[in-house]
């Protein structure tokens, strides 16, 4: 009787026939490859511009590339340049970036060129944001526009799902991240067919995006940290302490986010708010040094090369300055995402714990710190767990992180995240 009741409460949805899924393959492949190529193109152009701005130009002027003067000049100039794009370019580079997350947002085609330009300038200029949110928005907008033109009979909701998954696959270099994000988004929603049927097209697009990125640019999230062998009781204790502590630190920034955003919003004009934000970021960069600039993925690899190369105080300064820089960059109007800077913050926090307590293995400290920070900033459980795990590339870390995620999640669930509604209030 109990078994019959359980079966009635949780019916198994029927699987879709293969002929219903086969038409998704070609659109998914095209969207996956196209989304990855756009991501690689924007990233490559930003890297070349970054080399010009931060190497060629200061060398030609005889100025230290990471001197206090040049950091202040470049961050303020980046605020002016992005402010001009937001002010003058049609579409104003999209909506307020503080209101956007990883969810697919379909923007009109006229908005997309300005958003691409603002993102490339931001990535090259040094603000502490990543490319994920604007690149997802651009790919979703393009896929929806071109998809409706090319295949008008397919449902319109298909194209944003494919582009969102494809971009996540390209960003993380694996379709697993996209599958986890989509599965989390589908939780609690009525599904037509089995879960895997709903994941078929997006997973195909994510796989195509990940493979294209791997073939073209060969990215990796593995930091090359010392391998973690069989977990020990001290490792479990360290993870249980570091992940919630990192989540608490992240929640401090999340709590401050609406107030900082409101302060910049009251400046009233992008040509005031963005240069002011750039100047503040320049001051923070001068305080924290070059490692606290840019999106943070290359910089966190520098930290991981020599975990013993900095003192606990230095790691603490890097953590706090980068967190403040993320808060200001996300609040003042720069177009960018918050995942990659959060990875740097969490890694620096974990290495600070290692420097304070030598028994904390660097791999455990980094993974637990990134897990807690991402949970606080994104409120994406699967993405946080996945990102923290792949940074270490050790299967034994997964069990530790699953356990450590539970107390960290208790601290952040039901509380605001680093994303706002259109009226400036915090989103839970």
The gist of it:
The chain has helices at 2-9, 18-21, 25-61, 68-88, 112-125, 132-150, 158-172, 175-186, 195-216, 233-265, 270-288, 297-305, 312-332, 339-356, 362-378, 381-392, 396-412, and strands at 417-420, 426-427.
Task: Note down, in words, how this protein is organized.
By secondary structure, the protein is mostly helical. The protein is built from 17 helices and 2 strands. Helix 3 packs across helix 6 and helix 10 runs parallel beside helix 13. The longest helix is centred in the N-terminal third of the chain and has 37 residues. The N terminus is likely disordered.
Describe how the helices and strands are arranged.
Blueprint: H1 2-9, H2 18-21, H3 25-61, H4 68-88, H5 112-125, H6 132-150, H7 158-172, H8 175-186, H9 195-216, H10 233-265, H11 270-288, H12 297-305, H13 312-332, H14 339-356, H15 362-378, H16 381-392, H17 396-412, E1 417-420, E2 426-427
Antiparallel strand pairs: 1-2
Helix pairs in contact: 3-5, 3-6, 3-7, 3-9, 4-5, 4-11, 5-6, 6-7, 7-8, 7-9, 8-9, 8-16, 10-13, 10-15, 10-17, 11-13, 12-14, 13-14, 14-15, 15-16, 15-17, 16-17
């Amino acid at each position: 009787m109990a078994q019959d009741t359980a079966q009635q409460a949780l019916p198994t949805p029927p699987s879709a026939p293969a002929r219903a899924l086969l038409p998704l393959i070609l659109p998914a492949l095209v969207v996956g490859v196209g989304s990855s190529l756009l991501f690689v193109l924007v990233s490559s152009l930003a890297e070349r511009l970054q080399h010009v701005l931060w190497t060629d130009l200061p060398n030609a002027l005889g100025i230290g590339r990471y001197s206090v003067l040049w950091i202040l000049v470049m961050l303020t100039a980046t605020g002016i340049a992005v402010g001009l794009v937001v002010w003058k370019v049609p579409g104003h580079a999209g909506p307020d970036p503080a209101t956007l997350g990883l969810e697919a947002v379909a923007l009109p085609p006229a908005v997309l060129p300005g958003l691409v330009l603002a993102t490339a300038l931001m990535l090259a200029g040094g603000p502490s944001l990543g490319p994920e949110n604007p690149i997802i928005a651009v790919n979703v907008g393009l896929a929806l526009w071109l998809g409706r033109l090319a295949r008008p009979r397919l449902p319109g909701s298909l194209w944003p799902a494919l582009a969102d998954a494809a971009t996540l696959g390209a960003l993380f270099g694996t379709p697993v991240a996209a599958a986890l994000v989509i599965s989390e988004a589908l939780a609690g929603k009525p599904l037509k067919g089995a879960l895997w049927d709903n994941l078929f097209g997006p997973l195909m697009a994510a796989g195509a995006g990940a493979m294209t990125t791997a073939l073209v640019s060969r990215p990796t999230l593995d930091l090359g940290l010392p391998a973690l062998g069989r977990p020990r009781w001290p490792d479990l204790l360290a993870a249980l302490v570091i992940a919630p502590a990192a989540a608490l630190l992240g929640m401090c920034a999340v709590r401050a986010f609406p107030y900082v955003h409101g302060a910049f919003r009251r400046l009233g004009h992008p040509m005031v708010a963005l240069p002011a934000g750039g100047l503040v970021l320049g001051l923070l960069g001068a305080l924290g040094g070059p490692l606290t600039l840019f999106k943070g993925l290359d910089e966190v690899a520098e930290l991981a090369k020599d975990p013993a190369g900095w003192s606990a105080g230095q790691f603490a300064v890097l953590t706090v300055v980068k967190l403040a820089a993320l808060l200001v960059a996300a609040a003042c109007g720069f177009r960018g995402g918050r995942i990659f800077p959060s990875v740097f913050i969490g890694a620096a926090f974990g290495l600070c714990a290692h420097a304070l307590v030598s028994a904390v293995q660097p791999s455990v400290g980094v993974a637990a710190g990134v897990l807690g920070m991402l949970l606080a900033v994104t409120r994406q459980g699967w993405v946080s767990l996945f990102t923290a795990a792949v940074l270490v590339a050790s299967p034994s870390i997964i069990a530790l992180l699953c356990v450590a995620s539970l107390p960290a999640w208790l601290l952040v669930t039901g509380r605001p995240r680093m994303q706002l509604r259109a009226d400036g209030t915090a989103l839970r």
